[in-house]
Structures are given as structure tokens and as C-alpha cells.
Amino acid sequence: MPAATLHLARAATVVAAFALFASTAAVAGPVADNAGKAEQALASGDTAGAIAAFDAATDAFWAAAPLTFRVATFATDVKGFGEYTPVSDATFHAGDTVTIYLEPVGYGFASATSDAGAAQYKVSYTTGIEIRTPGGLILGKTDNLGTAEWSGTAKSYQVQTAVSVALPSALKPGSYLLLLTLTDATTQKSATATLPFTIAG
């Protein structure tokens, strides 16, 4: 999974978004304070200072945000962050293996060490699924589908996750819901994506 890239051309817009989040969600000072510093630094031409303040605002925002998803969709051809083909018609057959592409927000970073002994950051989730009828009847469930991990030398706020799920072969034609839950190993934050799908007749 590729590392994040900071695009300075968009920094003022992102800073404004941080400030709006801070004012509407009543988040304590670090998000708004550092967002303001970044905006001031950009205006004065202090690129290095803007980056440092932007990073501090991002860290504070990320820590305060609940675990949630920018994107949660059935997909194919997943290659990296933002590199996937969404499935427009979530119609499958019983027994098919499907892929869910996720872009989580609000996960934590743990300290780690590479095989070469270099300091790294690590993102790790456990995954669980449920398959339900639209009326809420649980047809299948596991709380330990597997673990998804990413590591890098710098924090990345663009870590995607792709989870493969084998649909039960006993599903009859009709409409269903797939609930995929990620639990962040570092913060213990948890989020569930609910994806409707259909089993073809």
C-alpha cells in the first residue's frame, strides 16, 4: 500500500476543512490551532512551516476522528489506494469470492521495526463479517476473518484495505446485506460497513 503524498496546492483547502471540523465538532485546540498556523505559514511563503503545522493538524484530526470509511465498496482489480474498479451491480452467485475495497479514516499508528532494524509505523486491523437478510436475520458470522496490516517509514493517511470474502454456497437467490467490521489494533476503534448485494437466480 503506497505512502501518502502531501499536495501543497490543495493545502489551503484542506486547512479550511480542518478548521470547519474543529468548530463544528467541538474538537479541542490542536486541530484548529495548527490548521491556522499552516494557513498563516502558506500565506507568508513559509513552506516548511506550513508542512509541519499541517502534519500536526492532521495528527490531531486523525486522533480525534472516529474510525470510519471514505470508501467502502465491492471492487475488482485492487492495486493500491484509489486504484480499483468499483462493482456497479453487486449481483453475485452463491459460493463466489468477492472483494471489498475500504479507505479507512481515523486509524492509529503503532511503533514498529523493519527487518533491517529501521523505525517504522504500523497500521493493523482485525476483520469480521456478518451476512444478513434485509430483515436482520443473521445467516453467517465470523469475528476473526483475518488481519490486515500496513507499515512504512512515515505515517500514511492513505492506507487502503481489500478484504476477500467467500459467500456461503447455501445462499438462495435474493437480497442480502454483508456487514464488514474493522477493529483498529492500536486504538481499538471499530467501524462497520454495510454493503447490500444480490444472489442471482
Number of domains: 2
| CATH-defined topology of the largest domain | Immunoglobulin-like
* Overall pLDDT score: 86
Helix content: 10-25%
Shape descriptor reads elongated
Sheet with the most strands, sense and barrel status: 6 strands, mixed
SSE succession? HHHEEEEEEEEEE
Strand percentage, roughly? 35-45%
Distance, first to last CA: 37 Å
Query: Which ranges are low-confidence, i.e. pLDDT below 50, for 5 or more consecutive residues?
Result: 1-27
In DSSP terms (H or I, runs of 4 or more residues), the helix count works out at 3
Report the CATH C-level class of the largest domain.
Mainly Beta
Structural class estimated from helices and strands: alpha+beta
CATH A-level architecture of the largest domain: Sandwich
Task: Characterize the structure shown.
The strands form two sheets. Strands 3, 5, 6, 7, 9 and 10 form a six-stranded mixed beta sheet that branches. A four-stranded antiparallel beta sheet has the order 2-1-4-8, with no helix packed on it. The model is unreliable at 1-27 (pLDDT under 50). The protein is an alpha+beta fold. The longest helix has 18 residues, at 47-64. It has two domains: 8-64, no CATH class; 68-199, Immunoglobulin-like, CATH 2.60.40. The radius of gyration is 20 Å and the shape is elongated. Helix content is 24%, strand content 44%. It is built from three helices and ten strands.
